[in-house]
Amino acid sequence: MDLGIRGRTALVCASTSGLGEATARALAAEGARVVITGRRGDLAKSIAAELPEAIGVQADLTAPDAPERLAGAAADAFGPVDILVTNSPGPPPGGSSDIGADDIVASMESLVLPHQRLVSLVLPGMRQRGWGRIVAIASVGVVAPIPSLALSNIGRAALGGYLKTLATEVAGDGVTVNLLLAGRIATARTVQMNTFRAEREGVSVDDFAARAQAAIPARRFGRPEEFGAVAAFLCGEPASYVTGTATRCDGGAVPTL
């Protein structure tokens, strides 16, 4: 399937590893011109050098100037942003009874505010040109809160509410807005969470991981490239009538439609 995004400018946040990197590589394979971003600038540039048309930009999204700097770097290299993929590292694990107001504020500052600022920078141009794609990489915790991930559940659900509202406002301008919710994908974040939960339960990480995979209908963790392929589709021309959705890539783990 031709996704119709050859030559489009794609800014992919937190794309030096995991789901962000997989999404950036999938977009590049479809001919998009990709901006790789991350706190590790050397790694961002190294990944960009492997792709046909890409640049790497060092950025910590929580820094005050990061959204403006990223949007500017994309425009300088390739032109205005057509595709924005938002993404953030997950906050520390912990239950609701373990967190305070400052923790919630920090979660919003990491998982909501930088992405809203990026959207506000690139959205006017998308609407003016009559084409745009905004995809937020998030977690199934948006629809099924995950135990021991209270801060992630709170912040990502807030971002989802913002983006769902936005989707209804811009659909008529040719801009789609969607969330892509990850279940257990074989990334460093999943290893981190497996380790945290195994320690809490007093079992080995391997035993916990085996039990976790057995609980997934697909009987395995997902591969990052599988997630990236779904993200690329949502960014493509064939998905023009898909907006305001929270699509899951979870191997069937969430037991609801």
Characterize the structure shown.
- There is one protein chain.
- Helix 1 packs across helix 9, helix 3 packs parallel to helix 5 and helix 7 packs across helix 8.
- The protein has 257 residues and is α/β, with parallel strands linked by helices.
- It is globular and about 55 Å long.
- It is 46% helix and 15% strand.
- A 7-stranded parallel β-sheet has the order 3-2-1-4-5-6-7, with helices on both faces.
Note the main attributes of this structure.
globular; single chain; 257 residues; seven-stranded parallel beta sheet; alpha/beta; Rossmann fold; 2 domains
Entry summary:
The chain is an alpha/beta fold and 257 residues long.
CATH class of the largest domain: Alpha Beta
Number of domains: 2
Chain oligomer state: single chain
Instruction: Output the radius of gyration.
Output: 18 Å
What does the average pLDDT come to? 96
Catalogue the unreliable spans.
Answer: none
- Looking at CATH, the homologous superfamily of the largest domain is NAD(P)-binding Rossmann-like Domain
Q: What would you say the CATH architecture of the largest domain is?
A: 3-Layer(aba) Sandwich
